[in-house]
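Deviations from the work plan: none for this task. Representative record:
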Amino acid sequence: MKEFSVLDDETSRRAGFAIVLVEPQLGENIGMVARAMANFGLADLRLVNPRDGWPSEKARAAASRADHVIDAVSLYDTVEEATADLNFVLATTARARDSFKPVRGPEEAAADLRRRAAEGQGTGILFGRERWGLNNHEVGLADEIVTFPVDPKFASLNIAQAVLLMSYAWQAAGRGGDLSPRFEAKLPEPATKDDLFRLFHHLEASLERAGYFFPEPKREVMTQNLRTMLTKANLSEPEVHTLRGVIKAFDYEAAQLRKKLGDAS
Amino acid sequence: MKEFSVLDDETSRRAGFAIVLVEPQLGENIGMVARAMANFGLADLRLVNPRDGWPSEKARAAASRADHVIDAVSLYDTVEEATADLNFVLATTARARDSFKPVRGPEEAAADLRRRAAEGQGTGILFGRERWGLNNHEVGLADEIVTFPVDPKFASLNIAQAVLLMSYAWQAAGRGGDLSPRFEAKLPEPATKDDLFRLFHHLEASLERAGYFFPEPKREVMTQNLRTMLTKANLSEPEVHTLRGVIKAFDYEAAQLRKKLGDAS
């Protein structure tokens, strides 16, 4: 029962998935999340800008002896940094959004996370702020959405409960037995999020130069559309490389023309 | 989705199962249990000798608007009285005991509860005191034992978490094979191949102009790589439109620069 053991090094961290709490407000909740994770053998807890700072004695107290999770917490300034080394990221949302990302239930999401982890992919799930969840930019950074099948008349899971259910579903998927290799074409592993984010920035800088973001009020939605499309494409590292080559060709062309123009004037 | 609806009369209470808290110590925990239940459409909460009495303002506050569960709480002096009207009762335990009762996991137990409820049986689950659970007499009153598959090195579920997992398992058992979430992203349908082929040609013509296809012997494989990637991305018509806008921005930039260069020479 390997999946029950407490994970204690980088290799075994990859056997599980990362829990990313975005701007958590209360130390108690961070502690309860750590405790929930530990029950199901998860240990990779990442915090993006915890409101009350870190370390937190309230978190440690609420973790109820899940000290190995609290001690291994990593801190980040942005969701981009917190997910840079991961290949596949889910965002939790409580309500429907105008999103073209696939929406999964917990069991389905957990089975997919297990399959990806078995292939060596780094995976993670974003959980939003206690009061209002994730913003559109943050959801936009994820590959897919996971939501919990709660009563629509009373949907009130706190963050630790949501983490508990997802951790339980992950562990249950491991017991399910459906871990048999899929006889599919071996798809290349998705690029890390860091590679993808660098592609975003490269493309956006080149498009800025070319005058794409016009009119100005549409900049935000144009950027989101591009990012959503590139995320959805589930690009491998070689594909990211190819696309950056495409952008570089346009960069080079414009630079050469500008140089000639400078020489001519 | 009958099982999602809030249960409000004796008949529909029987569609779910009773949560029986034996000598719960903290009002907060009773409230968190009510909140956990409400998320999954359960409403029959029974208390045996709550330490701090009943009603409890702390319980109501912690229930976070699950008032219909708090208002319907029933009080008993003994486990025998609390389960008198039920046909089948499970006891939750965290550790192995000297017992000849069957021990079930949550999914198995939940499926059995659903089957019995469908036959009209009244069912319930006993949860013990925060500090030390159920005593042997109380476990002896149950038909079977249910336990949670937590990491034996870190087994630390509080009472509300245990109720949450059991409620979730019960709801999941009702969904059976249907793992679809409550809301679906409206995934746009893929663009027509004609749209896709026009995108190929546009991109390739622009890249030709920019000098991307170099060295010449690699032209074929570079073209194939681009087409494979764009096909794999399963682009919708609006996405094809967006990508053509991106290419047009680079086209326009180069054309403007060439025009200036022509004017300058």
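The longest strand of chain A covers residues 18-22.
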